[in-house]
Amino acid sequence: MSTHHLTLGVLNGDDIGHEIVPAAVELAQAAAESSGLLIDWRPMPIGRKALDEHGSTLPDGTLDALSKLDGFILGPIGHREYPDVEGAINPHPILRKTFDLFANVRPTRSYPDIGCLYDDIDLVIVRENNEGFQPDRNVVAGSGEFRPTHDTTISVRVITREGSRKVAEAALKIARSRRRKLTIVHKNTVFKLGCGMFVEECYRAAEAFPDVEVDEAIVDTFAMHLIRHPQQYDVVVTTNMFGDILTDEAAGLVGGLGMAPGLCIGRGNLAMAQATHGSAPDIAGTGLANPYAMIESTRMLIEWLGQRHDIAPARDAAELMATGIRAALADPTTRTPDILGTGRHADMVAAIHRTIDRGAIDRGATGMT
Ligand code: ATP
Fold first, then answer.
1. Which of 189, 202, 289, 337 is most buried (most C-beta within 10 Å)?
2. pLDDT tier at 2 (50, 70, 90 boundaries)?
3. Does residue 206's CB lie within 6 angstroms of at least one atom of ligand 1?
4. Pocket probe mutation, ligand 1, options 77, 114, 257, 298, max atoms within 8 Å of Cβ
């Protein structure tokens, strides 16, 4: 990879994905142009549109094409609405597994006046992504959920030492770049073996990070403290299902699902930007989808790649996007109704774009390009 160049896949997903992903690409492109970063965008079909046009929600060749990229943006997938036909699969677990994206990094941050329950929240939940209770990704064949009789269902949770260690290391690295505090969230009082192993491996990983303060919390108690005192947390690491639930709870603290971005990372060089929310079919096409989560996820991807490969223009582009986002969120006319605005999706995107362009002019004036 040349130092000023990134190749990124664009997979719109379903429903509001067709609105928020193009918005994220538009703004990343504007910030990249202003920062001297070249992004080669590679759109690829996925989801319902891909099923209709190519007979599969994850067409042949997609994984191979993605493996050659620096990263990609995955829009929300509305798999629950897919027809019951061959080829209509949920691509999420396949993508996360294929590229070993075992850590789902989900920040929660307050912005002024948008309906946050507190104005000083700044935490990151790192959710294990490929094991746990999720029956579509915790086994290599079949399903981690089965029904031996008509009246009995068994759901299996998978916890491995390696999976636990890997996600703990990812969370510790993030903690080291922030306030150096990690909270392990679990329920080892009941899941003595599963959560017990997860906690053991987190502490083992922490031995290599003596500069990070580590504590732990039982998941139910944590869920309560997260509402009452979210300021006490910096980085939180937890298993898949607990993380799924807690990140939605955390989003509720700062304005709802439209404010919940995410980046899926592994040990490799490829990462996937993926907002926490679903495809929101109820608001698709209304112009009311909040694009923040998808734009911020894309910004996180560019920032992560900039840090990982030491590409200064990528870090600059990410910073410019952050400035644009803050400006749009600060004005009620340029934010969507879910975060106490009177604007629409397009107003928010246009406002971020304007600030990015203005930021580029300012940088030019100060010779900072
Ligand atoms: P999934 O299980 O796939 O994550 P879900 O069942 O949680 O999906 P979502 O599609 O995330 O459902 O939608 C939940 C609610 O949040 C809906 O009312 C939806 O309109 C709202 N919502 C989700 N994303 C956004 C967004 N970006 N902007 C505004 N509202 C949103």
1. 289
2. very low
3. no
4. 257
Task: Say if CB 336 and CB 348 are below 8 A apart.
Answer: yes
Atom 17 of ligand 1 has which residue's CA nearest to it? 280
Structure tokens at 46: 């996925």
Inter-residue contact 290 to 348 (CB < 8 Å): yes
Task: Write out the DSSP string of 118-163.
Answer: -S--EEEEEEE-SSBT-TTTSSSSS-SEEEEETTEEEE--B--HHH
How far apart are the C-alpha atoms of 230 and 157, rounded to whole Å? 28
- Residue with the smallest CA separation from ligand 1 atom 4 is 278
pTM score over 0.85: yes
Residue 247's Cα: distance from chain center in Å? Answer: 10
Span 15-42, average pLDDT = 97
- Whose C-alpha lies nearest to ligand 1, atom 26? 258
pLDDT attached to residue 142:
82
Q: Is the pLDDT of residue 140 over 90?
A: no
What domains sit in the chain, N to C, each tagged with a CATH number?
Answer: 1-102+257-369 (3.40.718.10), 117-253 (3.40.718.10)
